[in-house]
């Protein structure tokens, strides 16, 4: 499997997230803590949706990429998440509301006397 040029390389940052990608694979062999050689029958869109879902649910997963081996198509990328982990984190904090001048509020509290200085 590793020597076959038709296999793909899955690069990930969290070994726990690998269990989320397993259902998309027909075969999977982990070669390092951050890489696995796989066969899959799923298309790139299915992988992208799965990557987006995993990155939304798992904060430890910061980067993932599915690519060809360098012996085939020069290691061209097959699928990557449509949004980065920073972008997903920002959207969870902010939502989809546009920024307006009403989002910024300052509250000033003065304690003591107001007027002339002593």
How would you briefly describe this protein structure?
The protein is an alpha+beta fold.
The overall pLDDT average reads 77
Radius of gyration: 23 Å
Shape: elongated
| Cα distance spanning the termini | 85 Å
Main beta sheet strand tally, sense and closure? 5 strands, antiparallel
| Low-confidence regions | none
- Total helical segments: 3
Strand content: 15-25%
Content-based structural category: alpha+beta
Count all strands and give the number: 5
Helix content: 10-25%
If you had to describe this structure to a student in words, what would you say it looks like?
The chain is of the alpha+beta class and 118 residues long. 24% of the residues lie in helices and 23% in strands. The chain has three helices and five strands, in the order βαββαββα. The protein has helices spanning 18-21, 44-57, 85-94; strands at 8-12, 25-32, 35-40, 64-68, 77-79. The chain has a five-stranded antiparallel beta sheet with strand order 2-3-1-4-5. A hairpin with an 8-residue loop joins strand 4 and strand 5 (77-79). The radius of gyration is 23 Å and the shape is elongated.
């Amino acid at each position: 499997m590793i020597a076959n040029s038709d296999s793909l390389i899955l690069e990930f940052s969290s070994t726990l997230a690998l269990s989320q990608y397993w259902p998309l694979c027909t075969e999977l062999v982990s070669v390092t803590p951050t890489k696995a050689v796989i066969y899959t029958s799923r298309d790139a869109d299915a992988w992208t949706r799965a990557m987006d879902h995993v990155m939304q649910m798992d904060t430890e997963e910061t980067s993932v990429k599915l690519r060809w081996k360098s012996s085939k198509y020069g290691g061209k990328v097959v699928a990557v998440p449509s949004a980065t982990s920073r972008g997903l984190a920002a959207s969870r904090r902010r939502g989809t509301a546009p920024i307006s001048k009403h989002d910024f509020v300052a509250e000033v509290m003065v304690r003591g006397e107001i007027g002339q200085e002593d």
